[in-house]
């Protein structure tokens, strides 16, 4: 049994539905006309709009509301008939920070101006009740019977609950992901700890085995180091010998000259030790804590937690390499385990260092003897070339020059004599350059501009070129002097062998910044496609790096080549 209220409401709804059906039937049958038909149509439209679950609204070209359904009216807090003529600037959401009235009006303008619908606009609206609601809005152009856009028709669905559910789901997923990451990190730490524990146990077991094999290994090491006179091979054998008697994550041997400057080095690190520093030789080892200590103490020396090391060292051990109180270098090892090295390790490393001293001394003596013999042979060859070939070339050039003065301009052999003269002078320049190669010490005694002129004269005899030469009288220290000469030599050699050029320009300018520039108009090449060892590029760059200069190479196919060496003099030097 229904109550009165429910029955009344049901009866009222049935009556209202019957009236709508009757009105719709009369409208279709043409029984209504004029203002009655218009009123009936408007009433039917409003009934349809009010029956929709989503909000519906329509605006004119100025974004002023022309109508809406009850859902929209509840959001706006205005009766549908009072909404007509109002705009979003009159609505509760007009002054919203993120989605103000201008936001909604701009979308209206976009749809009206483009004539294209906009679907799925996600926006936030403050309702008349003061609630911030998330909406998914669709807007389409509103057109008259002739297809002209006269406004915009819009609908929106309240998606606040769905959006909140999505946000809650995302928060849950984020929390779950964070927990997984934390657990993964804990497992990684546990695995790392276990790995280190296993490695430490393996290292300790290896140390015990090394102690038993110490005497035999020391004997074999001595034999291996003294079996060769090649200094680089001696260094490798020293490192290998240390591997057999001292457990280490990194082993290094460093040799110094009579002035204490580092000249040779070799090191070897175990897999997994971490990043090992690789810098210029003179700057790398001089910073190490163990070498600074060995420079003032006899050693062997143990340092735990060193401030500077080649790798991630927590313990280091080092010893001097010397013969008869003459310091020849240092031998040191590093470990990633704190307090790893003991007096027993120091004794073993010291024994290897003593053996290394004898082997290094022998290798240096052998190298010195070889260098002396080579120098003597170069001197002998230079004297022979100077006394024989050089004099012959000079005589040939002088004879050709004399013949040129005697021959008339129209003499048929004048061109060949002139060619002979240029070839002789070029060969003489090449011979001078060759003599300097045989006597390297003389390179610094000849001015840089004169040396480069020798190279240019030799180039001129081999190629018919237009030459533009501007060489300043530049004074440099020995290393820079040699570098500029070698780079010029390599650049001009490339012109001769590869460029196929018709003109070459060579400039040498002086000042706080010294610059050498060799320019040719040859066939050029693609700098990016040249192998690292081709055209001597790698050698030129290494020479430039050795003095802190900058070498640039600019070339393109068919566009010639520019080689430029720029060197800034050290402050305080002329």
UniProtKB/TrEMBL annotation:
Keyword Nucleotide-binding applies: no
Positions in coiled-coil regions: 159-186
Keywords assigned by UniProt, alphabetized: Coiled coil, Kinase, Transferase, Two-component regulatory system
Gene Ontology molecular function: any one: protein dimerization activity
CDD domains xref list: HATPase_UhpB-NarQ-NarX-like
Residue span(s) of domain PAC: 119-171
Membrane-spanning parts: none
Every Histidine kinase domain range: 380-571
Name of the protein described by the UniProt record: PAS domain S-box-containing protein
Organism: Ilumatobacter fluminis
């Amino acid at each position: 049994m229904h109550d009165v209220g429910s029955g009344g409401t049901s009866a009222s709804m049935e009556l209202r539905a019957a009236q709508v059906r009757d009105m719709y039937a009369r409208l279709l049958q043409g029984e209504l006309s004029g203002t009655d038909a218009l009123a009936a149509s408007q009433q039917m439209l409003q009934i349809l709009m009010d029956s929709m679950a989503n909000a519906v609204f329509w605006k004119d070209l100025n974004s002023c509301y022309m109508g809406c359904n009850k859902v929209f009216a509840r959001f706006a807090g205005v009766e549908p008939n009072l909404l007509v003529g109002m705009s979003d600037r009159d609505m509760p959401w007009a002054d919203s920070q993120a989605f103000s009235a201008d936001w909604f009006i701009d979308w209206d303008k976009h749809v009206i101006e483009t004539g294209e619908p906009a679907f799925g606009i996600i926006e936030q609206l403050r309702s008349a009740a003061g609630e911030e609601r998330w909406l998914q809005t669709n807007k389409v152009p509103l057109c008259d019977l002739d297809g002209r856009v006269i406004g915009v028709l819009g609908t929106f669905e309240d998606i606040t609950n769905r959006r909140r559910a999505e946000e809650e789901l995302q928060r849950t997923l984020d929390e779950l992901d964070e927990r997984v990451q934390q657990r993964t990190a804990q497992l990684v730490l546990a695995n790392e700890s276990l790995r280190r524990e296993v490695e430490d146990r393996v290292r300790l077991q290896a140390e015990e085995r090394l102690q038993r094999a110490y005497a035999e290994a020391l004997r074999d090491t001595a034999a291996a180091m003294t079996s060769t006179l090649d200094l680089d091979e001696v260094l490798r054998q020293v490192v290998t010998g240390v591997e057999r008697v001292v457990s280490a994550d990194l082993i290094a041997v460093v040799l110094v000259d009579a002035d204490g400057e580092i000249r040779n080095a070799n090191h070897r690190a175990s897999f997994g030790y971490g990043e090992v520093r690789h810098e210029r030789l003179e700057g790398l080892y001089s910073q190490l804590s163990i070498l600074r200590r060995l420079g003032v103490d006899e050693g062997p020396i143990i340092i735990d937690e060193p401030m500077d090391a080649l790798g991630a060292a927590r313990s280091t051990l080092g010893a001097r390499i010397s013969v008869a109180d003459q310091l020849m270098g240092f031998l040191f090892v590093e470990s990633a385990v704190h307090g790893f090295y003991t007096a027993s390790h120091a004794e073993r490393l010291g024994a290897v260092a003593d053996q290394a001293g004898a082997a290094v001394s022998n290798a240096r003596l052998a190298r010195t003897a070889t260098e002396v013999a080579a120098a003597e042979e170069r001197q002998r060859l230079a004297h022979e070339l100077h006394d024989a070939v050089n004099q012959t070339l000079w005589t040939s050039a002088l004879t050709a020059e004399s013949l040129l003065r005697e021959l008339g301009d129209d003499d048929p052999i004048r061109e060949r004599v002139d060619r002979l003269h240029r070839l002789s002078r070029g060969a003489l320049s090449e011979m001078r350059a060759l003599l300097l190669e045989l006597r390297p010490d003389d390179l610094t005694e000849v001015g840089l501009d004169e040396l480069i002129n020798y190279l240019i004269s030799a180039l001129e005899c081999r190629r018919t070129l237009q030459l533009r030469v501007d060489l300043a009288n530049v004074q440099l220290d020995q290393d820079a002097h040699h570098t500029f000469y070698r780079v010029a030599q390599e650049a001009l050699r490339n012109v001769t062998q590869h460029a196929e050029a018709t003109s070459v320009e060579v400039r040498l300018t002086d000042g706080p910044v010294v610059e050498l520039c060799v320019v040719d108009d040859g066939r050029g090449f693609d700098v990016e496609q040249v192998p690292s060892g081709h055209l001597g590029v790698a050698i030129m760059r290494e020479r430039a790096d050795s003095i802190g200069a900058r070498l640039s190479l600019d070339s393109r196919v068919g566009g010639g080549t520019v080689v430029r060496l720029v060197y800034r003099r050290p402050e305080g030097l002329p």
